[in-house]
TrEMBL record:
Organism: Pseudomonas nitroreducens
Assigned protein family: In the N-terminal section; belongs to the glycosyltransferase 51 family. In the C-terminal section; belongs to the transpeptidase family.
Region of interest called Disordered, as start-end residue ranges on this chain: 504-539, 685-716
Annotated membrane topology: Single-pass type II membrane protein
PANTHER family for the chain: BINDING PROTEIN TRANSPEPTIDASE, PUTATIVE-RELATED, PENICILLIN-BINDING PROTEIN 1A
UniProt cross-references to Gene3D superfamilies, sorted A to Z: Biosynthetic peptidoglycan transglycosylase-like, DD-peptidase/beta-lactamase superfamily
Acidic residues: compositionally biased ranges: 707-716
EC id: 2.4.99.28, 3.4.16.4
Single GO MF descriptor: peptidoglycan glycosyltransferase activity
Protein name as annotated: Penicillin-binding protein 1A
Amino acid sequence: MKSLMRAAAQLLKTGHIQTGGSTITMQVAKNYFLTNERSFSRKINEILLALQIERSLTKDEILELYVNKIYLGNRAYGVEAAAQVYYGKSIKDVSLAQMAMIAGLPKAPSRYNPLANPARSLERRNWILERMLKLGFIDQPRFEEAVKEPVGASYHVQTPELAAPYIAEMARAELVGRFGGDAYTEGYRVYTTVRSDLQNDANAALREGLQDYDQRHGYRGPETRLPGKTRDAWRQAIAQQRPLGGLEPAIVTQVEKSGAMVMTRDGKEEALPWDGMKWARPYLSNNSMGRMPSQPSDVVQAGDVIRVQRKDDGSLRLTQVPAAQSALVSLNPQNGAIMALVGGFSFEQSNYNRATQARRQPGSSFKPFIYSCALDNGFTAASLINDAPVVFYDEYLDKVWRPKNDTNTFLGPIPMREALYKSRNMVSIRILQALGVDRARNCISRFGLNKDDLPPNLSMALGTATLTPLEIASAWSVFANGGFKISPFVVERIESRDGQTLYQANPPSVPQDEEKLDPAAQAQAQPAATDAFGNDDPAQAKTAIEPAAAERIIDARTAYIMTSMLQDVIKRGTGRRALALKRDDLAGKTGTTNESKDAWFSGFNADYMTTVWVGFDQPESLGRAEYGGNVALPIWMRYMGAALKDKPSHLLPEPPGLVSLRIDPVTGRAAAPGTPGAYFELFKNEDTPPSMNELAPGSSPGSGMPADEEAPIDLF
């Protein structure tokens, strides 16, 4: 109490309290109840709160509050957190020497940090032990045992129950957007849409897929090299390294014929066997590697700082942090809830969220939007489109544009269905040209994409728009849910510290009954209160509202036919790898941009819509033989295979108004009995093609458009 009164008198006399003048009780008041604002009024409040605390609590209770809140370096607040960070154990399990080390931190967490300044921290620790001996808290034998103990501290990442740092940052940003600075002080509870099992599946799928890609391009060598150092120096150096994406840092201490010895962050040495490093051909470029190594010394040297990964059998394997990056987004297509999201290989390496911030060209994974618009404008899945070379002249730039297919081959007139699963660029361009660029941009923007992000020219057909993986996943959800636009969101509910609901998400959701499928009923539906990217007043969430109905933007039959066509991409097209999942309810599309700078796969069933992107942060080629089908698709398969394990097949039922007809593959028209190669195709009732003998003058086989609008484009 006397200390508090002296502090108050000093504040009134000088306007501030000298350094070190705050009592422990005042620091408790500040840490638990006040902000870091530097003002006279805040200091007065601090003293008044401290007086109340002194009257209400014992000295031991105040000290307990103090040691559980004080900053102790390396993002550790409180002694329990410090024990976890520096020693990887609970405070109740640390040794006397370790406890003394932690006790030395409050005075100067940086100066006496055992990771950054091990020598100073050792002096401080031993001084504390001497004081404990002199004051009778320990006896001489315990003192001597404790001072002999090495520092032994290393950085331990606290592993949360669920590793979702990108999601956590998205939730934090939304919380701050809604509540401002109170988000950090009011103890709000935030409940997200993310499912922990799916998030873990997404983390593992992305990391494994990136490592597979990275290692097939060779080993880039150690992160750094520390030659000639002592083991103590190596131990201190490796203790300051952090795991990245589950890959542990290690220093090579010795190279032998059978492998190498490496020191890990805990200071222990383990064997890295030859079998765990013989994959490491030297990286030369994204298109070439050096010779296979024949012995461990071809791969590592003593002093190399490397990354290792523990295999299932407990042995170590050489690895490296991938140079390429990736993003994965998985949505519930019925309401836009984000079920899992990964924004990169490691949040610790880079907190840049590529799922929401990286704007990249989607390549052929954009084509379904153009095909969908065509199906809503008189085209059918059987419409014959000429897959042939075409040349365009730009009179403003005085340039010639010669688009091509990725194989530089051309198939002539082919049905739209085949063109999609074979990803024929020329067909997409001709469809867009027939639709008209402006009409197509208006149509595609209804999927939730910003019209300004869609190129106002025919290159849009090749996926030259710049979009984020989250935007792609959201727009693709229209196919998965039967034609409704949804908005992605991640925050389900926000509560106050006492459990009062301050915000409840009410996203536009796909109607579940026939009444809401009616356009008139749809028009009367209430708009959503918010989504994860809105800026609504949080007070609005306090009033219960009826569930919002999502807007229908394409015909249910169009969505069904598109799903059927995208299923063929997996059954017989560029997504054939996904057949390994042995499911009949998957639909999707690969995407690869020029020079393989971006690789994509987007796909779904009725439960999950998932998009995967792979590329470099600074765009460069992934390599000559790298495409969406062998870079992004394996990640998608790992995730969807786990997410759908033991789940029954689930696609939306066929809507009314469709008919299946046998089609002549040569004409795109209804087949006569005995027509060779005839196949069944889906049509809207109003778009069923006539047989050839019913073909009216002026109409063109394979399309509902007049012949003069389908005149062959001149070839140059």
